[in-house]
Amino acid sequence: MTRKPYPSDVSDDEWMFVAPYLTLMKADAPQRQHDLREIFNGLRWLVRAGAPWRLLPHDLPPWEAVYRQTQRWLAAGCFAAIVHDLREMLRQAQGRKARPRAVIFDGRTLQSSCESGVRAGYDGYKRKKGSKVRMAVDTLGHLLALRVTPANEQERAQVAELARSVQQVTGQQVEVAFVDQGYTGDEAAEAARQHGIRLDVVKLPEAKRGFVLLPRRWVVERSFGWIARFRRLARDYERLAETLAGLHFIIFAILMLVKAAPLLQSA
User: Fold this and answer.
1) What is the pLDDT of residues 107-153, one digit of tens each?
2) 5-62, pLDDT tens digit by residue?
3) Dist CA 55 CA 35 (whole Å)
4) Alpha-carbon distances of 53 from 67, 114, 129, 192, rounded to whole Å
5) Assign residue 61 a region: left if phi > 0, alpha if psi is -120 to 50, beta otherwise?
6) What is the pLDDT of residues 210-241, one digit of tens each?
7) Secondary structure string (H, E, C) spanning the chain
């Protein structure tokens, strides 16, 4: 690398781990015109800085190459595989079972932009128009599954799909999901029960004043805080819901690589 490095660049240890996941063709293939590591660095810079694709710095590969390769990675599920393996590694490093038995469901609303306004809905509680990202994380805050919908769709209507995705990722190991009061009702409970999951509603105290740290549910709020450091997800700038969902897996892969760096160095 001849350019000056960016703070978002991947380290040598991190690249050694992710390179097998991201190499979708042979290194000597005639189609490869740009270094794969530099393309990944361009993607990392974009999600961290929050700039549009066309504003990638000139010392990184062209934005067209970074965008097209990112879409190939997302279509192949590369980052979902990285997150899955890193999650199991980090859990085992803390003395936990590789696959969790308890998860947390919650969602956050991203305000729409000109690109995403077509599929946006109005969230009356948050008083903003945009998309809602429903996430399922384990008890360490690591991403398991997510679903992107217009913000006006109810949380309880997404329980079945989230529960199905979670059980598919964990091999039917999850037994309980901690949720907020938006998931109350027999319909949501039955949808989760069909996939072998029991919903445990964590309610706010009756006399709430200021910030209240809720049992179990604070974990997913911390995960939202981690995501907020990446400006690409400050708003919904994506035209496709699939791209918005894929960016979450990219960001969690970046976050979890930092946590796994000591393990990678020792290995």
Assistant:
1) 899 998 888 888 888 988 888 898 999 999 999 999 999 999 998 88
2) 999 999 999 999 999 999 876 656 555 678 899 999 999 999 999 999 999 999 999 9
3) 19
4) 7, 15, 24, 39
5) beta
6) 555 566 778 888 999 999 999 999 999 998 89
7) CCCCCCCCCCCHHHHHHHHHHHCCCCCCCCCCCCCHHHHHHHHHHHHHHCCCHHHCCCCCCCHHHHHHHHHHHHHHCHHHHHHHHHHHHHHHHCCCCCCCCEEEEEEEEEEECCCCHHHCEEECCCCEEEEEEEEEEECCCCEEEEEEEECCCCHHHHHHHHHHHHHHHHCCCCCEEEECHHHCCHHHHHHHHCCCCEEEECCCCCCCCCCCCCCCCHHHHHHHHHHCCCHHHCCECCCCHHHHHHHHHHHHHHHHHHHHHHHHHHC
Task: Identify the CA nearest to 224 among candidates 136, 131, 120.
Answer: 136
* Both structure tokens of 39: 């393309």
Q: Which two tokens stand for residue 70?
A: 């990112």
Residue 142: name the closest of 96, 194, 181, 111 by CA: 96
